[in-house]
Design brief:
With 699 residues, the chain is an alpha+beta fold. The protein has 14 helices and 35 strands. Helix 5 (312-321) packs parallel to helix 7 (368-386), helix 7 (368-386) packs parallel to helix 9 (428-447) and helix 9 runs antiparallel to helix 10 (453-470).
Length: 699
């Protein structure tokens, strides 16, 4: 699939650049190969010709991009599957196996303690133990930055002298090769200072230990210590895994990530609100990567371990959902995406690149570059409402103008038809994105004194009228929106989660929402359909209705629950006043999040919930994933219905009156560049607890 015009290559160093020519695949992030280029289909699960993806759902994944570590629950790194420490998409260490007194520890527990750290607990029995109770406890804390701390604690009443060995090994393989089972054999190592060193084609890795080992055996990759433990004493060994350029460490988002996504908190009557909100923020921070040519700019990679490459549309949606926290991430993401804008035969308009994405069993794959092009003016317009500085708006406005001119040129006076093999196919979800871009873009251009505002508004109004007439399928049950319309006017009827985007209208000035593509009666019917058991699995919104042909509860867009689509549905239903349906979907996702340890995957199986069931993981899902992590912010802020207009100095609240989670309080938010806190009571009454002095409150 490609844009109709031959795109040029973006400026060198752009973080989301693609090669010249058709936009067909997801480009890797700087130094972060995309595993699903060799292990699965872009934007979906494994595809034809791809190797079998190793299961990682039960693995403990610690991430602080460009660092990543994948561990089994027992804590030993054995080199199986994806296990190991990674940096910039390359496995620096595959094996790290501990023995104490010649014995492997007995694993007790492995669990994450933050997005970038995991703790493993074990015990070991030694010949000196006098009974069945082990006297040596072992704690291993492993970090995505490339470090591990191993602590031995003795409960013995007598001094102990124990030999400790750590066996190390690596293949220096790229993540994609590891995922595809093509990692190759381990490389021979050499003793290096206080540890080991490995050298491969174009890559090096060094492991240093503190305190230095008493002995090192290069041929076996073994470091040895003679540990003396006094009664009740402890001994700690620290390992540091790095590339050969460790003296000049690769820059990570670090402080910039903290500024792009500051601290915020959520609390409520439901005890699950706080841990889910915190986990979502931690995961989103962990996925932030730098633009190497512009280190101040960070944006969210799509997800790990399969999609570390950039996906402009998903980066923009993640930044949009995080707007209640800050506009910094949106500004940085918009700048990073803007550098990739393609030219259109020299005309002053241009689309954005993006990978091809599977669209389910009833529609051909779509190009997410179209989605990114339509998202850009939306994110810029809404970021301005939340408080993005006018100077930054002015810097990014020309890119948004080119996106809108591309939309008008591509759509003409009719529907926006995506480029692709299905000539003339018109997708309902694409029209929703295009309509939102035109409405919000029109107001943005008008308020900034730029031309083209009226043309966008006129096209959007015409689209609304035509869509309501031509995209609605009448039936005895009340009808439904079509998924698509073919070139000869036939409607594609299956109902899927893409219909939720018809409810996502966008934020205008004075706390108003944009008009939707559906009229009031159609919106009510769609709300009923989304809240029915056919679409609501009990764990969230299915990608395809359970009664539709081709339904597969594990299908990426054929029945699996995608957290992002569910969050869009919850926010849209709540804003439209359909609180019962919104509350049911919200509670379903919250229940699923609890089952997943509050780290939501990008998708999970859409099996119908029963009294004794739990949500089933999808083997190809990224966890964490940027849009799933950012969706947590949208799910909770939708309860408060915050509608800011920073340029006008106002903010309004439209809370969910039914209070589906009881009382909820959100703090650490930001409106107009100042701290903002809001509470929704058990009665559904919204109260602003902290706001900038210049903001006029309404609701």
């Amino acid at each position: 699939m490609a844009f109709n015009v031959p795109p040029r290559a973006p400026a060198p160093g752009g973080p989301m650049s693609t090669a010249p020519g058709p936009v067909r695949r997801q480009a890797p992030a700087p130094g972060l190969p995309d595993a699903r280029r060799t292990g699965g289909a872009p934007g979906g699960g494994p595809g034809p010709g791809y190797g079998e993806l190793p299961s990682v759902h039960s693995a403990l994944i610690s991430v602080a991009l460009p660092g990543l570590v994948v561990s089994a629950e027992h804590g030993q790194l054995t080199g199986h599957g994806l296990e190991g420490f990674y940096r910039n998409g390359r496995r620096l260490l595959a094996r790290c196996q501990l023995k104490v007194a010649g014995r492997e520890p007995i694993a007790l527990q492995g669990r994450p303690i933050s997005a970038d750290r995991a703790r493993f607990s074990a015990v070991v029995r030694t010949p000196a133990d006098s009974g069945p109770d082990p006297e040596i406890a072992i704690e291993r804390v492993r970090r995505a930055d490339g470090s591990e701390r191993i602590t031995l604690r003795s409960a013995s009443p007598r001094p102990l002298r124990l030999p400790v060995e750590i066996a190390l090994g690596t293949d220096l393989a790229e993540l994609g090769a590891v995922a595809a089972g093509r990692a190759g054999p381990e490389l021979p190592g050499s003793v290096h200072a206080s540890g080991m060193r490995w050298t491969g084609p174009g890559a090096h890795a060094v492991v240093s230990a503190q305190p230095p080992p008493a002995d090192a055996l290069a041929s076996a990759g073994v470091l040895r210590w003679d540990v003396e433990l006094p009664p009740g004493g402890s001994y700690t060994i620290e390992l540091h895994i790095r590339t050969d350029r460790a003296d000049r460490p690769a820059r990570s988002p670090g402080q910039a990530a903290g500024q792009a996504l500051p601290h915020a908190e959520a609390e409520g009557d439901d005890p699950r609100v706080a841990p889910l909100f915190q986990s979502g923020l931690d995961d989103l921070r962990a996925l932030l990567v730098r633009d190497p040519a512009h280190p101040a700019d960070v944006y969210a990679a799509a997800g790990v371990p399969w999609r570390t490459g950039p996906a402009p549309a998903e980066a923009l949606w993640a930044a949009r959902m995080a707007l209640p926290l800050t506009t910094r991430l949106a500004a940085a993401t918009l700048r990073a995406v803007a550098r990739t804008q393609l030219s259109d035969n020299g005309r002053d308009l241009g689309p954005l690149p993006g990978p091809v994405r599977d669209a389910g069993p009833h529609l051909p794959p779509s190009c997410t570059g179209v989605e990114a092009t339509l998202a850009f003016p939306v994110v810029l317009a809404e970021a301005r409402r939340w408080g993005l500085a006018e100077s930054e708006v002015a810097e990014l406005l020309p890119v948004a103008e080119r996106c809108l001119r591309w939309l008008r040129a591509r759509a003409g006076t009719g529907y926006l038809v995506e480029p692709g093999p299905a000539v003339g196919l018109v997708r309902a979800e694409t029209q929703a994105h295009a309509h939102r871009a035109a409405v919000l873009g029109s107001e943005l251009l008008s308020e900034c004194g730029r031309p083209g505002a009226e043309e966008c508004a006129v096209w959007a109004a015409a689209l609304r009228e035509r869509f309501r007439e031509e995209f609605w399928i009448e039936d005895l049950a009340g009808g439904r929106p079509a998924a698509a319309r073919t070139a000869d006017g036939r409607l594609v009827p299956p109902l899927g989660a893409g219909a939720a985007h018809l409810l996502d209208t966008g934020l205008l000035g004075a706390g108003q929402l944009a008009a939707g593509l559906l009229d009031k009666v159609q919106t009510e019917q769609l709300a009923r359909l989304l809240g029915s058991p056919v679409m609501d699995s009990g764990w969230g919104l299915r990608g395809l209705g359970a009664k539709e042909a081709g339904y597969n509860p594990f299908g990426h867009r054929a029945g699996a629950v995608r957290v992002y689509d569910t969050a869009v549905a919850v926010a849209g239903l709540a804003a439209a006043g359909y609180e019962k349906e919104a509350g049911a979907l919200l509670r379903g996702v919250l229940d699923a999040a609890e089952a997943f340890g509050y780290r939501l995957p990008e998708m999970y199986a859409g099996e119908q919930r029963t009294a004794d069931s739990a949500p089933l993981p999808h083997p190809a899902a990224c966890r964490p994933a940027a849009v799933a992590a950012a969706s947590v912010v949208q799910l909770f802020t939708a309860l408060a219905g915050i509608r800011p207009d920073a340029p006008a100095g106002t903010v309004a609240l439209f809370p969910v009156r039914s209070a589906p989670l009881g009382a909820v309080r959100l703090s650490g938010l930001s409106v107009a560049g100042e701290p903002f806190a809001v509470r929704v009571s058990r009665l559904g009454v919204g109260m602003v607890e902290q706001a900038a002095d210049r903001l006029q409150l309404g609701g």
